[in-house]
Write a structure and sequence with these properties.
This is Isoprenyl transferase. The protein is of the alpha/beta class. Helices cover 45% and strands 18% of the residues. The chain is globular.
Length: 222
């Protein structure tokens, strides 16, 4: 049985789910937030150490301003409503990505969330915001150079936003691509693509995906 230490999820299909069900887009994202809560519950039960969620990519900045503003209002609401739950469940929160692009208000809320949950070790939820794997690798190499270190795999990995390798890479929402997400960390990840739109992801399907992963044979090229 494979140990699952780090699970990465591309949460795709919120808007399509809302449209399919004749609902406003914001309802799709709200339903997606409820699914995140279920996923966190199962990750705690499964004793998974890291859960990394792809929330907003570097490419997403190119979407219409109205849509970007809406997504960050949703993030602001999530940060407001989730802090007490994270504390109650002893879950750590960490944001990864090029956070320098965020406005001061949301950045300070993220810092506050991180500070108030930093001591917890039951699970770390890494939220990828303004994140792109290529950008992350470039920033990591620059840090290595600034520290006058040798440019090698170990030093680059240590200076990434997230140094832990991904065990299982899950993408829901029918698309079969990795979309510039955790490219370095996922070099030997097991990948699972689900046709299910993210807001429709059930606990049963999620648990089955984890169970199927644990039965896979992992060789890491050896």
């Amino acid at each position: 049985m494979n140990e699952l230490r780090h699970l990465a999820i591309v949460m795709d299909g919120n808007r399509r789910w809302a449209k399919k069900n004749g609902l406003l887009e914001k309802i799709g994202y709200s339903q997606g937030a409820k699914v995140v809560e279920k996923i966190i519950e199962i990750c705690i039960e499964e004793k998974i150490q890291n859960l990394t969620l792809y929330a907003f990519s570097t490419e997403n900045w190119q979407r219409p301003k109205e849509e970007v503003d809406f997504l960050f209002r949703l993030l602001d609401k999530y940060l407001e409503e989730s802090l007490d739950k994270f504390i109650a469940n002893e879950v750590r929160f960490k944001a990864i990505g090029n956070l320098s692009l965020l406005d001061d208000k949301i950045y300070k809320k993220i810092q506050n969330f991180q500070e108030k949950t930093k001591k917890y070790t039951k699970l770390c939820v890494n939220l990828a915001i303004s994140y792109g794997a290529k950008d992350e690798i470039v920033r990591a190499v620059k840090k290595v150079i600034e520290k006058n270190l040798e440019i090698n795999e170990a030093n680059i990995q240590a200076n990434l936003d997230l140094s832990e390798d991904v065990d299982l890479f899950l993408r829901v929402g029918s698309a079969k691509r990795i979309s510039n997400f955790l490219l370095w960390q996922s070099s030997y990840a097991e990948i699972h693509f689900s046709q299910t739109l993210f807001p429709a992801l059930t606990k049963k399907e999620f648990s089955n995906i984890i169970a199927e992963y644990k039965k896979r044979k992992r060789t890491f090229g050896k």
